[in-house]
Amino acid sequence: MGDWTVIGAITLAAVPESVGEARRFATEALPEGDRTDTAELLISEACTNSVQHSRSRFGGKFTLTLMGSDGTLRCEVVDDGSVTLPTRREGGELRGSGYGVMLIETLADRSGHFVDGDRLFTWFELD
Fold first, then answer.
1. Which of 27, 62, 24 is nearest to 46 (CA)?
2. Which tens digit of pLDDT belongs to each residue from 65-103?
3. Cβ-contact 47, 61 below 8 angstroms
4. What span, in angstroms and rounded, lies between the C-alpha atoms of 29 and 39?
5. In terms of pTM, does the model score above 0.85?
């Protein structure tokens, strides 16, 4: 991968309504197409995880950054971290939530997370 060019970034309050705002931001910043549709879905999942599970939910914020390099799209969501790291839920029981990490791992070409100080960076890439 070459150098990343920032396409856009937005910082939002870690409240449920911000997930839709992050998705709309991505829709406006990215060209129409299947990759953008996938990015919007995965952005929703990553932002929802920040809103529901990170320390940002206690009056904090999260930041979504969209970047491009050599035809690859990288999306990063940065929040105030959590006691636990994002993990894929295992098991076959039906449930209404808990599929975000699985969707990101399945649909993205590459994904991961890392901690820098108190901040959690969750990222994924689409070729």
1. 62
2. 999 999 999 999 999 988 766 555 555 554 444 567 888
3. no
4. 11
5. yes
What sign does the CA torsion over 78, 82, 88, 93 have?
Answer: negative
Name the 3-class secondary structure at 115: strand
At residue 52, the 3 state secondary structure works out as helix
Q: Which of 43, 42, 65, 45 is nearest to 53 (CA)?
A: 45
Q: What's the rounded Cα separation, in Å, for the pair 48 and 123?
A: 14
Instruction: Report the alpha-carbon distance of residue 24 to residue 33 in Å, rounded.
Output: 15
Q: What are the residues whose beta carbons fall under 8 Å from the beta carbon of 24, sequence distance 6 or more?
A: none
Domain at 5-126, CATH class: alpha beta
- Whose tokens are 């449930």? That residue is 95
Q: How far apart are CA 124 and CA 61, in angstroms?
A: 20
Where do the domains of the chain lie?
A: 5-126
H or E element at residue 61: strand 61-69
